[in-house]
Amino acid sequence: MNEPILELDGLSKVYPGGLKALDNVDLIIRQGEIFALLGPNGAGKTTLIGAICGLVRPTSGTMRAFGHDLATGWRQARARIGLVPQELATDMFEPVERAVAYSRGLFGLAPDPKRIEEILRSLSLWDKRDERIMALSGGMKRRVLIAKALAHEPDLLFLDEPTAGVDVELRKGMWAIVDEMRDRGVTIILTTHYIEEAELMADRVGIINRGKLLMVDEKEAMMARLGRTEAHISLSSPITELPPSIAQYPVEIEKGGTSLCYRGGDGTGRGKAEVAEITKALIAAGIDYDGIDLRESSLEDIFVSLLGEEEAA
């Protein structure tokens, strides 16, 4: 197993007035993984990133990155951390290439025009290198932010809502860029409103709300443990009660007896197997059906369910 490169222990941030933006957060990030942090607006995602990147001072707790305590060895660790912020404010009047090269110099690295060219080409920005940032589209400006964050060759990269406000095609382009960075060994932590991004790219997922980290797990393990299968079976003729062979399953009669609803399984495929058994039992009981609408729960379903449980607590 890869070594931890980021360790948070009991991290909290309380603002004047009592607002708890972070509430006793524990988290370990390992080298080479993509970690997606999901949560609604105001959940604490940006505050968490800000604390690690030195933009927010925590109220309590400890943070270690690359073996350095961020309270005392922040400068050494920060040189290995890149941040792509949520907002697009940047040096709008600068040409793209100069702005990216300047970001490299801020970290004390020697000029490297070849490396800057590689970064700009990988982000499809090379043809825009002499244009002022203000003249670019929103999606291209966001790519410039990524280029600036990569200019000093970080080992850990934070992407705060990297595809907010860009169209579907640009989002797909961003996903490809993230894959390339992973292939180069960069560890990535991203926050996103687009749950399909986490489902597509992340190795692990954390769900945060009201400053609390509700759950952290491998994506596949989370979906296996909390996932469900739902099937609606349309019957040819209505029934008033379930035969014993079907009543043993989590099935309910709906729509005046013309439909059966199954909700069960555990995200491992057991639900699909049980639906198949139910259809066989229907045939054996002489009950005809016209169709089956079956779906597996997505990461979004799990996300919404967890937030609902937390709100009700």
UniProtKB/TrEMBL annotation:
Which Pfam families does the record cross-reference, listed alphabetically? ABC_tran
What GO molecular function annotations does the UniProt record carry, in alphabetical order? ATP binding; ATP hydrolysis activity
Keywords on record = ATP-binding, Nucleotide-binding, Transport
Is Nucleotide-binding tagged as a keyword? yes
Q: Does the keyword Isomerase apply?
A: no
The record ties this protein, via Gene3D superfamilies, to:
P-loop containing nucleotide triphosphate hydrolases (3.40.50.300)
**Which residue intervals define the domain ABC transporter in the entry?**
6-235
The record's section on SUPFAM superfamilies has:
P-loop containing nucleoside triphosphate hydrolases
Q: Extract the signal peptide range.
A: none
InterPro entries in the record? AAA+_ATPase, ABC_transporter-like_ATP-bd, ABC_transporter-like_CS, ABC_transporter_ATP-binding, P-loop_NTPase
* Record's protein name: ATP-binding cassette domain-containing protein
Q: Which organism is it from?
A: Qipengyuania vulgaris
